[in-house]
Every structure is written in structure tokens, then in C-alpha cells.
Amino acid sequence: MQIVTVPSVRVEPGVRWQDPVVRPRARAVARAIDRAATVSPARHDGPRAGWLAALAYGVAYTYGGSVDRKALALAAVVLEGANAFVFTDRSGDLVAIARLLADERLRTTAQRLTRERAEWLESLAARLRAGRVGRRPVPEGVLSARAAVLLGGLCGGVDPALTASLDEVATWIGLAWEQAQGTLDDVGWRGAWEALGLERDRTCPVRGARDALSALPYSALVEQLDDALAMTPAPGRVFQAWRPHPVPLSTREPATEGPLAAAVEAAMDAVVGEGPPLFVASARYLRVQGGKRVRPRVVLAACEACGGAPERAVLAAAVIEWLHTASLVLDDILDDAHVRRGGPTLHRATDRAFAVAVFAWLLDRILLATRDLDADTAQVVRTAAERLADGQGSELAETGRPGLGRTAYHRIIATKTASLFASAAEVGALAANAPPPRVAALRRYGHAVGLAFQIADDVLDYTADEADFGKRPGTDLLAGKATLPWLILRDAATDAERARLDADLGRGADWTWIRTQVVQSGAAEAALSDARVHRDDAVRALDSLPAGPARDALAALAHHVVERRT
């Protein structure tokens, strides 16, 4: 097919193709870039600087009915930070971008918007599900423009139907940008439209963008975008488009003990059974890697301990385990961990961008699955997801900081790990229609077990063998995480030793010496003593439950998570 082209105007020195959109919003855009630059050292003066923030502002204020200014300002910071990363050949800067996303103001604002604009988000989610994401590559320029439009629509309260039209405009403009860069091929063209659930014959994207703009309500933004389309963008980018990846196939199933464990595996399969084939295959890859399935065991035993039939809690157990698994995918990306449960981590088996997409898809499948749970249980799951995000954000904010105190460490693991264990015990009790005092007791149990579990896990990162542990020891140190055994060692160290420890946090070059010191100094055993205190708190929380096998199983699990060697 012959491609029709529309002549464009070359950018004159000092004039950028995005200037017609950026100039009217220059002050707000400059603030967003300045704030992004304080977190990320990436290139913030690249060929597309200001474009995404300006587009988000333009959509929100031109078509929005109730602009949330605080949310919009934060969204602009994230967009510009991510855009700078696209133009910077600096792979380690991914953590800086993640810190932008983990900013506490952003997290609390996102949680508020999620609650206040739930119907808008559900409309967006339904439209995204209708697309066929995951089959073919989607050009980066398309993804970026769509992200700006959708965030502008969310923060501005733009009518969902109009946002859908703006989303299509963003796809056309992203394709036009890619064509000007010489990076648009037939596969990327098809992938861009499949992501919208549409098909378009390949033609001149500038002309397509102008036709789509003409269908929008007339506004200054339409005119500004049309002016930008008349220019040729400056070249220069190192980031590649998002690409789908097959994952290694496996016919094996995780080892299960009894029909309830098998039922949980089947329920986990059902939660992720529909969607883009490569995403479904990736979910299966994650599931068959196995894992301890400690949280599902907590759910089922808590239900039984309250007099309920554990079969009633199988779906809740599956959802909780998927929430945990999704959090591990994100953890591994940020830590650049190579091994998980004895096999390659998802981002190592594929790539980071694909693994992030699978993570987002898993969250959507989890939220869909909560529709089949009762309202109270569904709310517990949603709250657990928010707390996991808080914990991840707090951990990112403290990553690489040697001066982290033990109180801050416990606060991080309380939100990142203990909160999910507490939720697991709580949803088990809710499945049994337990009275509030028993629900509260089990929640206390789960919280204490979660603290004990994480501390023991942090100790194992210094003491376990990779073959038994299922992942490479030393991952925390290499990722810049000051965990309890390291903190105890640091507190007892000489000035020279402390300087050596601080210098190696996030590097791992001194791993052998540090590992030896953690063990020989007694820091590992001291951390386990702390874990045993939380274990004892967990067992005491069970005192108000009826005696029986289920309560005994919960007590035994509390002991196991501390004394385990894997």
C-alpha cells in the first residue's frame, strides 16, 4: 500500500514542534519539569520536554468538568519524569522514576482519586480490556501520548466518552511522532490500534490525526495540536517501544497438599484465565513457580478456626496470593533480581517493560475477582493493595539510606508485608462470618506473623544458600535495602566498619565480608530474636479462638515462618 504523506514544516532554530501546546501552559510545565528533575537525574531538556505535561494540562482544563489541580500537578511531574527517562541512556534511572511514582503525596492523591472517580476508572478499565494489548508491540510515542491524555482526563473529570475520542487522537499523534522519527513499522501500527480494540489501514498519521481532531468539540487545544502537527519533531531517543514476550512454558504444577491446596491453585488459574494470551501465559509462569503459599494457608486456617468451612474462603485465598505475587513482580523489577523461586524472574525471562505491563494487568484481574467476593472482603483486599503501595513507596524512599532507623524499618515491613498477612487472616475470618472480636484477634495474629516472616526472610538473605532459598542471597544489600540484620550489625560496628558498610549499601562488592560479619557478630541471631517476639505475639492473639486443629495450625505456622531455612 502506498503511504500518503503530508508536507510538514521544519522546526526553526529555537522553535520546538511541541511549542504550540507547551507555550500556553509554560509555567505549569516548567514546575513539573523542575520537580521531576529533583528526583530523576535523567535528561529533562530532551526533544520532547514539556509535551506530555502540556497535553495532560490541556485535556484537563479544556474539557474537564471538575479539575483536581493537586492531582494534575503530580501527574504532570510523573509524565515529565518518565519522558526524561525515555531520552536518557541510563538504565539505573528506573529506580528514580519509581521514586516519583512512590512519592507519598502522589500515593495519597491516587488513592483519593481512585475512590472519588471509581466509575470513571471502571469505564476506562472496561475500554482497555476491550483492546488487544499484549499481542504486538506498541510504539513508545503512542503509549506516552495516551498516558498524558488519560491522566488529564482522570484529573480533569473529562466525560469518559470524550476521553475515548481524545485517546484515539493521542494514538494518531503518537504514530505521527514515530513516523517522523523513522521508527514506525507495520507491526507497531497494528499494535497501536489493537491496543484500542480498533483496526486502521496504514495511512498518513498526520492526516489521520487532523481528521480525528476535527471530530472533537472545537477548542484552542485542537488548534494548538493542529499547529504542532505542521512541524517535524527533532530526532533523538534511546528507549525502545513496548514489546510482547513469550515466557518459558512449563507443564508442571506446584506441589500441593490436599484438595484445598489444589482448589486454591485452580482458583488462582481462574482469576487470570482470561485476557491477552501472553499475559495469561506470564501469569501461569508466575503461578507454577510455586512459592510457600503461606498467605492462602492463613486464609483457610483462619476461616476454619472461626468455625467456617474453608472451602468458602478459597477464592479469597487465591486473590490474596495473586496480590502478593504481583507485588513480587514489582519488587524484582526495582531490585533487578535475577532469580525468584528457583527460576528467572519475570522481567529477566522477558524484559522490564513487559513485566510492568503484566503487573498492571494482574492488578486489574485481582480487582475484577473481588466482584465475586462479599463487600467487606472486597474492601479488605482493596485496602491491602493500597497498603502494599504505601509500603513499596516507603521502602523506595529509604532505599540506599544507611541512616535508616529500626523504627522506620519496622514501619516499612508493617505496611509492605505484615498488612497483607493481616488481611489474609481477616478475610478468612470474614468468610466464616466470625464476630468482630475474633476478626480483630485474627488480624492481630496476621500482622504479628507478617512482621516475623519478613524479619526471618531478611535474615535468610544473609544466611541461606541460593538452592534452598529460591533466590540469590544478598539481593537486599545489592538493592540498597538496609534490613534488620544489617542495621544491627551497623549499630555495633566501629567507625571504620560502619563507613565500609555504608559505602557498600547498594553495591554488594563487599558481600562476602558483610555476610560473614552478620553471622559471626550475632546480628543474624539478634534479628531472629526480634522475629520470635512477634511470633509469640501472634500465638497469644489466638488465645480467644476455640481450641482445635485449625488454631493449632495457625500457631504452628507462626513458629515455622521464623525457624524455616527456605
Element layout with pairings:
Layout: H1 19-22, H2 26-39, H3 51-63, H4 69-86, H5 93-102, H6 104-116, H7 118-130, H8 140-156, H9 160-181, H10 186-194, H11 205-214, H12 220-229, H13 258-271, H14 277-288, H15 294-305, H16 314-335, E1 339-340, E2 343-344, H17 346-349, H18 352-369, H19 375-398, H20 406-431, H21 436-463, H22 466-469, H23 475-478, H24 484-492, H25 495-504, H26 511-520, H27 523-541, H28 549-563
Antiparallel strand pairs: 1-2
Q: Find the CATH superfamily of the largest domain.
A: Farnesyl Diphosphate Synthase
Q: Could you tell me the strand content as a percent range?
A: under 5%
Rounded average pLDDT: 89
Q: In CATH's first tier, which class of the largest domain applies?
A: Mainly Alpha
Q: What is the quaternary state of this protein?
A: single chain
How many strands in all? 2
Description:
The chain folds into 2 domains: 19-229, no CATH class; 258-563, Farnesyl Diphosphate Synthase. The protein is 68% helix and 1% strand. The chain is built from 28 helices and 2 strands. Helix 5 (93-102) packs across helix 19 and helix 24 (484-492) packs across helix 27. The chain is globular and about 75 Å long. Mean pLDDT is 89; it is low at 1-13.
Task: List its salient traits.
Farnesyl Diphosphate Synthase, single chain, two-stranded antiparallel ribbon, mainly alpha, 1% strand, 566 residues
